[in-house]
Write a structure and sequence with these properties.
The protein is built from three helices and five strands, in the order H-E-H-E-E-H-E-E. By secondary structure, the protein is of the alpha+beta class. The protein has a single domain, classed as Alpha-Beta Plaits (2-Layer Sandwich). The strands form two sheets. Strands 1-4-5 form a three-stranded antiparallel beta sheet, with helices on one face. A two-stranded antiparallel ribbon has the order 2-3.
């Protein structure tokens, strides 16, 4: 039994709520391999971003002032933002 895999949720899906995003771009600064801004100044997820370091992806999501970045595990459970 591997305790590490039970405690750590692997990010499998990244979703940007484009209606919520205000283009601050902290996600791009923290994880430029995962995020970019489109021509409208709204965050987009780059191809393959879910394969990048989980901690970096979580930090990028947490840096968003409007919580527009949603992270999910393989089973579709929300990892971030946490339910309040």
């Amino acid at each position: 039994m591997n305790q590490t895999s039970e405690k750590t949720k692997k990010i499998h899906k990244i979703y940007v709520d484009r209606k919520a995003c205000i283009g601050v771009a902290t996600c791009v600064v923290i994880a430029p391999d995962a995020f970019d801004l489109d021509e409208s100044g709204i965050a987009i997820v780059k191809e393959g971003a879910e394969n990048l370091d989980d901690n970096k992806l979580l930090m990028a999501a947490q840096s968003c002032p409007v919580l527009a970045i949603h992270l999910y595990d393989k089973e579709g459970n929300k990892i971030f933002p946490y339910k309040q």
